[in-house]
Amino acid sequence: MICFSVQPTTTKTPSATTSAAQTSLIPHNNLHQLSISSFPPQRHRSRRRLQVRAIDAAQPYDFEAHLVNRFVQSTKLKIAILGFGNFGQFLAKAFVRQGHTVYAHSRSNYHSIAQSIGAAFYSDLNDLCEQHPDVILICTSILSTETVLRAVPLQRLRRNTLFVDVLSVKEFPKNIFHQVLPSHFDILCTHPMFGPESGKNGWQGLPFVFDKVRIGDEDSRINRADTFLDIFRKEGCAMVEMSCAEHDKYAAGSQFITHTMGRILEKMLLESTPINTKGYEDVLNLVENTSSDSFDLYYGLFMYNKNAMEQLERLDLAFESLKKELFGHLHEILRNQLFGKIEEGGLRRPKLAKLPVNGTPLLLPPSESSSNDSN
Ligand code: NAP
Fold this sequence. Notes:
Layout: E1 2-10, E2 22-28, E3 31-37, E4 46-55, H1 62-74, E5 78-82, H2 86-97, E6 101-105, H3 111-117, E7 120-121, H4 125-129, E8 135-138, H5 145-150, E9 162-165, H6 171-180, E10 186-192, E11 207-214, H7 219-234, E12 238-241, H8 244-267, H9 278-291, H10 295-303, H11 308-344, H12 366-374
Parallel strand pairs: 5-6, 5-8, 6-7, 8-9, 9-10, 11-12
Antiparallel strand pairs: 1-4, 2-3, 3-4, 10-11
NADP nicotinamide-adenine-dinucleotide phosphate (NAP) binds next to helix 2, helix 5 and helix 10.
C-alpha cells in the first residue's frame, strides 16, 4: 500500500513544452516525492507535490501473496455438518485442524461445543444455507436421515452444492439423495470405517470407503469432491473406492457382526480380572468400542442394510451348531457313564464318531453297521 500526502508549492516553471501532465517519483529523505506538473504550462503556476509517506513492506510481493492466498483458499472448503452429535463433532475437529471452515446444525443446541472446536453453530437451517457452504455433510443418525435431508431449504444453497454422507450403511442414503435432491446437486457417499473410540489416536491406515455417486463434469466440481476426499487422505486413511451395494455386503458380514458380538458380550457384564489373557483384553476392548456407540446406530446397521438379517441368522445357526457340538461330546461321556457297565456286560450300543451336521441322517461307522446288520 502506498500513502500519499499532497503539498501545494508555488514554483517558477521552466519553459515547459510538455503537452500532457508529467509525473516523476523522486526519492527524498527515505520518502518518495511524486511531482505532478499540471497542464497548460504557466509562468507562475502552482506545483503540487505528492509525498509518499509509507510503502507497504511487502509491496513487491503483493501479487505473489495474493496468488498464494487464492491457491490456499481454493484448497479450503466451507463444510456444513448436519447432525453435530458424537461423530459430527469428531469429524469437525479434523476439518478445523486442516483449515476448513465448519458450520454446524443439529436438533440439539451445541453452540458452545461448536465454539470450542472452532466451528460456527446455526440453530436455523435457513441461516446456515445462506452461508453457501461448498459441502453439506449429513452426519445424523441413520434413522433420522430422511427427515433431516427433507428439511434442508435447497433453494438457499448454490445450485451445484456437494452433498456428502458418512452413514454406516450406504445404499440407503444413496437412494434418499436420489429421491430428494434435484439433479444439479453433486452426491458423494462415504463411510469412514472408524469412530471416536477406534480413531482417537489418529486415522493412519484406517479404511475410508467412498462412492462418487454423481459428480458434475466441470473441473471445479471434480476438484471440490477431491478436496473433500483429500481431508481423509491427508490424515493417512486407506482410501477404498467401491459401490454402495458392495460396501453394504461387506459391512453386514464384518461391521454388523462386530457390533452384534460387542453388544451380546456387553449384556454378559464382563469384568476385568487379575489374570486377563491378551484375547480377553481384546474382548473387553470390543465391548468398550461398541457400547460407546448409540443404539440408534446399531439399529440402523440392522434395519437399513438388507444383508444384515441374513448375517444375524447365520450367527444364530453358528451358535446353535457350536452348542450342539459341545453338548454332543457331553452326551457321549454321560452315556458311557450311564451305560458303560451294561455294554461291558454284552449289550453293544452304536457309537457315533462325530455329531452329524444339521439335517444329515445319522450314519453309523461301517464296522458297526455291518455287525448290526448281521444281528
Ligand atoms: P447416531 O446416534 O447414529 O447419530 C446421532 C446424531 O443424529 C446426532 O447429531 C443427533 O442430533 C442426530 N439425530 C438423531 N435423531 C434425530 C432426529 N430425530 N432428528 C434430527 N437429528 C437426529 O450417532 P453418531 O455416532 O453421532 O453417528 C452419526 C452418523 O455417523 C450415523 O449415521 C453413523 O452411522 C455415522 N458413523 C458413525 C460412526 C461412529 O463410530 N460413531 C462411524 C462412522 C459413521 P442431536 O445430537 O442434535 O440430537
